[in-house]
Amino acid sequence: MRRTITATAISAAVLLAVSCAKERGTSTNEDARRYFEAWVAVQSKAHPEYMWEKAGSGIYILEDSQVENGEVVTDKAYVMVEYTCTDLDGNVIGTSHEDLSHKTGINYDKSYYYGPATWTNSDAALNVGVRDIISGMTIGGTRKAVVPSWLATSTRYATEEEFIANVTDGSDYIYEIKIADATDDILNYQCDEMDRYWKQNIQGLDPDSDGAAENAPYTGPDGVQYQECWDTSYTGFLFRQYFNTLETGEDGSPVMTFEKDSTILINYTGRRLDGQVFDTTIADTAKVHNIYNPAKTYAPVEVKWSNDSTAITLGESGDLINGFKSMLKHLHNEEAGTDNEGKPVEGFSAGETATAIFYSSLGYGYSGSGSAIPGYAPLRFDITVVKEEEEE
């Protein structure tokens, strides 16, 4: 998986996370204030069902439903939110909800990520208006509020007058936010998510169970029995490889070597943990997951392996995300010679597979990649060996 960051149209997540407002000490922003106050006066009479409660640095809370005795997220470092953002006329600017995105046509694509977004809950990451909405909310709680344009800044001023005097070029928005979860340790949070996913989707266990399944025979989609082998498990990275044959030592562990500078051909598929594929070398898989690109060549890709992970290349590129590079590094070849039945073993056998999942620090980090991979997203990759590259 190459390290590619796709430039996309401005999304609501960007509007929420980063203030586009310019701060100027010379503008009083009086026209913006008069317009906003007139809008509030008209709408509060037209919609008395809303609270119209002024809070924080000047937001207006319209609806507020929090979980009684629920965990307050005000001081949490990260919050996972479902949201919709509209302008004052009700036009959707952005949303985390797939059905609404599809209905309104706001940058909709079946392959895009829809679900809770992870926001860093700080003044540096979120504008003042959004942070004021989140303040006091609980996990499971919802709140709808209007944010005036002068709060579209990450700089906190002491008074509303100072905001109005210094912040211009923002826009008025209405946000509807639900807190899905919150944490102070985003990497540990992802590890817990990965553990549940691994147990349920790889091991076939109850995701809330303790412990891990022992190595056991695995029947592949072609009906062939494979022997599975846990190779390694460390923080933020889980890996498993399946072998057609497997020579083991006295302690039952695999006896395998992998020659430096070996070359193999693989197919790979990368997906989010919700199952959506974002990259693959297999045309049919791309079509099924709505990411097929007729300009792309779908074919097995060459991997040049090395015991030095920095020297591993995929095709012509060595610029790979660390999780995928780590997966390639942890592939193990069977020792040349014969297997337990006396059959010759020359290296990888076609059809042998490996699976890895890893947290965002080994992937695309806090920013994600385009609209398909959100920030702080754990990823899964599956590799199938096509054949061993023949020497010239």
Task: Tell me what you see in this structure.
This protein is an alpha+beta fold and 392 residues long. The protein has two domains: 12-183, Chitinase A, domain 3 (Roll); 186-388, Roll (Chitinase A, domain 3). It has helices at 12-17, 30-46, 98-104, 128-134, 160-166, 186-202, 283-288, 322-329, and strands at 22-23, 53-55, 59-65, 78-86, 92-95, 117-120, 142-147, 167-168, 173-183, 217-219, 225-234, 237-243, 263-272, 277-280, 301-304, 313-314, 337-338, 344-345, 353-358, 379-388. Strands 10, 11, 12, 13, 14, 15, 16, 19 and 20 form a nine-stranded antiparallel β-sheet that branches. Strands 2, 3, 4, 5, 6, 7 and 9 form a seven-stranded antiparallel β-sheet that branches. The protein starts with 11 loop residues before the first helix and ends with a strand. Residues 4-26 and 253-257 have low confidence and may be disordered.
Quick synopsis:
By secondary structure, the chain is of the alpha+beta class.
Lay out the secondary structure.
Blueprint: H1 12-17, E1 22-23, H2 30-46, E2 53-55, E3 59-65, E4 78-86, E5 92-95, H3 98-104, E6 117-120, H4 128-134, E7 142-147, H5 160-166, E8 167-168, E9 173-183, H6 186-202, E10 217-219, E11 225-234, E12 237-243, E13 263-272, E14 277-280, H7 283-288, E15 301-304, E16 313-314, H8 322-329, E17 337-338, E18 344-345, E19 353-358, E20 379-388
Antiparallel strand pairs: 1-8, 2-3, 3-7, 4-5, 4-6, 4-9, 7-9, 10-11, 11-12, 12-19, 13-14, 13-15, 13-20, 15-16, 17-18, 19-20
Beta-strand residue percentage: 25-35%
Instruction: Give the SSE order as H and E letters.
Output: HEHEEEEHEHEHEEHEEEEEHEEHEEEE
Could you tell me the mean pLDDT? Answer: 83
Distance between the termini: 27 Å
Shape descriptor reads elongated
Helicity range: 10-25%
